[in-house]
Specification:
The chain is of the alpha+beta class. It has 2 domains: 299 residues, Aminopeptidase, CATH 3.40.630.10; 123 residues, Alpha-Beta Plaits (2-Layer Sandwich), CATH 3.30.70. The chain has 15 helices and 19 strands. The strands form 6 sheets. It has a 6-stranded mixed beta sheet with strand order 1-2-6-3-7-18, sandwiched between helices. Bound molecules: ligand BES and manganese (II) ion (MN) (2 copies). One manganese (II) ion (MN) binds next to loops. Ligand BES binds next to strand 15.
Length: 476
């Protein structure tokens, strides 16, 4: 089996692989903050260099417009992509090199962009701590290492598989330039048969997984304006609307007593859970009480939409969330004020086949119908993404399942996640391509939080799986 030499190479280059990942994690590629523009480019260049080293033709393609440039996308192809005689499917690999902001900095045990390898402790194995460790540099690196393994062990480039690689630098800031990029570079992407993404998790430490559904997202910001200035609450309290009180009253109406979202039409396009799916998830034996204990909550905190289990609520039901709310005086001491305005960030996690734009419009219409007397709304759309559910039976998914089994010795679970990866929906709607989400994170990796980690066992499993997947997918 040709993959043997590549797997051997991984084994004897274990330390060097981790060192390479450390080098990438040191680059603070925070995409939301303009101060890190050059660092984002540096992180993209770093990835392009690894791809070149592995025998692919790699380039940095600009995104956005002249006036509003975005972060570059790394686009790379194996030579076989241009070879009319090359057999087998053409696989698109997507990942993102940007990371979330690291704050609050004071909660990090070591600086976020100075990666450290921590020894195994309790259930947590030896792991690398840094912003981006698991989301998503560490996972992308496991794919890059697989490419390097094929190359340096003398095998064919990417195990002979036709691959196009697309690494985005704006996933954590809403993928605002991605749709245009995909349309503009359609000719380079449309011959792909399937997309593989490593940006999700395993079921648990022992059980690798393929994620066959991610939720969508509609993210908004709303401000309720009242008076044209802040007012003395003695003079004006009881005489005119307080926008904070009014805003909270409106928002409290988003849910009924069963935690169902009250916006008319909200559930119209939601695909019902199939009994077979409910049975399969039940059989996974998910322990919600333990999961709650991990986040410091008692069993009675198992709260959410009535009639569904915790796993069903995360994987198959939409939600409305208030992500932030502010206004008035929040400094030290007391200030008797009625503020001029109050704001909230309100977002919706969506499931197939809810349309993020329709949900946003429905929410804004719902707000307007409840405009408190004498007040005015300012309604802003931040970003969104479609939910995706992909088929659980396909030859290419089977190929990935075989690779996971061979790399881990265990059968992979078929799971969903409550998180969102906007590119999945975009590839389906723009190019008709399905995605296989094959990720290696763990639930306690602290994604987006201080002390984000990636366990080396997961990283290495990712490296081996990608080596084998390149071979298995190539069989067609
Ligand atoms: N990799 C995550 C999505 C994810 C998180 C998948 C946890 C599985 C488990 C991705 O980078 C992410 O953070 N997505 C954002 C959406 C985006 C539009 C900002 C999310 O889900 O909030
Ligand atoms: Mn991610
Ligand atoms: Mn993320």
């Amino acid at each position: 089996m040709p993959s043997e030499a590549a797997l051997k190479w991984l084994e004897s280059n274990k330390q060097a692989s981790v060192d390479r990942l450390v080098g990438w994690l040191k680059i603070p590629s925070v995409s939301t903050d303009p101060a890190y523009r050059d660092q984002c480019r540096a992180a993209a260049t770093w990835a392009a260099q690894r791809l070149t080293e592995a025998g692919l033709a790699a380039e940095l393609v600009p995104t956005g417009t002249k006036e509003k440039p975005g972060h570059p996308i790394v686009l790379a192809t194996t030579p076989t992509v241009h070879d009319p005689n090359a057999k087998g499917p053409h696989v698109l690999f997507y990942g993102h090199y940007d990371v979330q902001p690291a704050d609050p900095l004071n909660l990090w045990e070591s600086p976020p962009f100075e990666p450290v390898i921590k020894p195994a402790k309790g259930a947590v194995g030896e792991h690398i701590v840094a912003r981006g460790a698991v989301d998503d540099k560490g996972q992308v690196a496991s794919f890059l290492e697989a490419l390097l393994a094929w190359k340096h062990s003398g095998g064919p480039i990417a195990g002979g598989l036709k691959i196009t690689v697309m690494l985005e630098g704006e996933e954590e800031s809403g993928s605002v330039n991605l749709e245009r990029f995909v349309t503009d570079h359609r000719s380079r992407l449309e011959s792909c048969d399937v997309c593989v993404i490593s940006d999700t998790g395993m079921y648990d430490r022992q059980t690798p997984a393929i994620t066959y559904g991610v939720r969508g997202l509609a993210y908004t910001e709303i401000t309720l304006h009242a008076a044209n200035r802040d007012l003395h609450s003695g003079q004006w309290g009881g005489r005119c609307p307080n926008p904070i009180s009014e805003l909270t009253k409106v928002l409290a109406g988003l849910w009924d007593k069963d935690y169902r979202v009250t916006i008319p039409g909200f559930y119209d396009s939601v695909r019902d859970l199939q009994p077979s799916e409910r049975a399969a998830w039940k059989a996974l034996g998910f322990d919600q009480v333990k999961a709650l204990a991990d986040i410091g909550m008692p069993p009675e905190a198992d709260v959410g939409e009535k009639g569904y289990t915790a796993l069903e609520r995360e994987w198959a039901r939409p939600t409305a969330e208030i992500n932030g709310i502010w206004g008035g005086y929040t400094g030290a001491g007391a200030k008797t004020v009625i503020p001029a305005h109050a704001s909230a960030k309100v977002s919706f996690r969506l499931v197939a086949d809810q349309d993020p734009e329709k949900i946003r419009d429905a929410f804004f219409t719902w707000c307007k119908a409840r405009t408190p007397a004498g007040c005015r709304w300012e309604l802003t759309d931040h970003h969104g993404g479609w939910p995706v559910t992909v088929p659980t039976k396909s030859p290419m998914l089977d190929a990935c399942l075989r690779a996971l089994k061979a790399a881990s010795g265990r059968d992979a679970a078929l799971i969903k996640t409550g998180g969102s990866i906007p590119v999945g929906g975009l590839l389906k709607s723009a190019l008709g391509i399905d995605t296989i989400f094959m990720g290696f994170g763990l639930d306690d990796d602290r994604v987006h939080s201080p002390n984000e980690k990636f366990e080396l066992a997961c990283f290495r499993l990712g490296c081996r799986t990608h080596v084998l997947a390149m071979e298995e997918l190539g069989r067609g």
